[in-house]
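Worked example 4.2. Below are the chains of a multi-component assembly; read each line carefully before continuing.
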Amino acid sequence: MTAPVLADALGPRGRRQARIASVVALLAIGALVVVAFGRLSGRGQLEARLWEPFTQWSVLKFLLGGLANTAKVAALAMTGALVVGALMALARLSALSIMLAVPVPKGRTDSFLSRVRVRVFPLRALAGAYVEFFRGVPLYLLIVFCAFGLPPSGIDVSLFQALVLGLVLYNSAILGEVFRAGILSLDRGQSEAAFAVGLGYWPAMRLVVIPQAVRRMVPAIVSQLVTLLKDTSLGVVITYEEFLRRTQISAEFFDNILPGAIVAAAVYIVINYSLSQVARRLEVRQRRRYQAGSIQVSGVEDLAVVGAQAGSQMGGSAA
Amino acid sequence: MGVVLDNLDQFLTGMRATVVLTLASFAIAAVLGLLAAGFRVSPVPPLRVAGAFYVNIVRNTPLAVLFVLFYFGLTKVGLVYEPFVTAIIVLSLYTGTFVAETVRAGINSVARGQGEAARSLGMTFPQLLTVVVLPQAVRTVVQPLGSIFIALIKNSALATIISVSNLGKTADALVTQTAEYVPIYLGTAVAYLLLTLPSGQAVGWLERKVAIRR
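Applying the procedure described above to all two chains together yields the following structure tokens:
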């Protein structure tokens, strides 16, 4: 589909030019494919010997076991990240505050007081620090730290637990931002109206704010969860036997690194593409139903894309 | 914290390597992304398919798989590059897909009437693009592109898999040397924050700068 803003429907001459360009492009793409396959077969990478292991049940069972490990890590990390993320968002929006008396610096003689009272939000500050910290460091670093840094420090974690923990720390920070942006994107009048009819903070949240906010957040959440699934492949750097690691082990055994990597990529592509399509469908459906775009949240590539696709100009961006 | 201060020069070298890796990959990714976005909105069907193929295939492949495929796999067909070059190729290919999607969404976010108005004024296609569509598209694109850039800073740590020097590699090497896990990983995290947090601020500033009050 041509972007409607860039050009009108083509006339006869334009259609002819497009046809010529199509033929040229097809030839170029065909040439590329031929060169690629020529290269593969020239180096003997298409030999049946290299691909045949993927038809053996023992190999398939081994790889499927890896896929099951990936699913286990992903499911646990998703649950953890959603729960912790929600807590972080609530903490960052909490109005809990305490007054602190702080001494006025000595040089300030314009005040007759020796101390001033300052309002601080401890929950907000803590959750804010958590989110900014874990959002700003590479997931790779978190996972490696959990796997190799925690055990020597006396916290005994298995590779599985380390991978899950790293994924939860990173993704809870990002999902926390998504939740916060979703709640803030709601018109203030909604919570004001809820308070006006006599609801307290928690009933207003539960009955009015959260149900509306969640609808806006669903596409962003799903797309972040797809990213999480993709990131479980980082287990390979700590040699946890998830899917990618197992394809590598089998590739070392059969000496078919390239076919192994291609198969691994294909499996990830099929899974992630289908899930992305689900996210997209949710996005379209909710836009049609509620005439509201989804929220934009910075920090993640996939979210950025979903946000821009909505093209929404709503507030509450968490930049 | 003594270990970190003693090895400050190594951290600085690592930071510089991460910055170089990020900037080089982002520049190439921008070109790739623009090209792919152009393909995807062109009136030539094979190009549209090729653009969609690139974006959907590469975006849905985990970065770790791409590193394995390009570094260990492609040597098998005689495509051998230096690890540093491989890292840039992989990071820019991966990031390019996100740029492509963002640019395409940005162009599509411009109201269709804008293009129609420009054409009815007799503007040529380059005029339409540079005077009407792009200035409006930039506003929706700045923030997501900024997020992509920051994500790239963090993703570049994966180049450690193929032993390309960067902050992650620095941490790796120092930990192996000294076995002081906590201070070194904490120091590395701070070094990354020194890159990502200011980038976030800069993106916010840029976003406010291009914004128009309606």
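Take a moment to check your reading of the output against the notes. Chain B touches chain A through 82 residues (CB under 8 Å). The radius of gyration of chain B is 21 Å.
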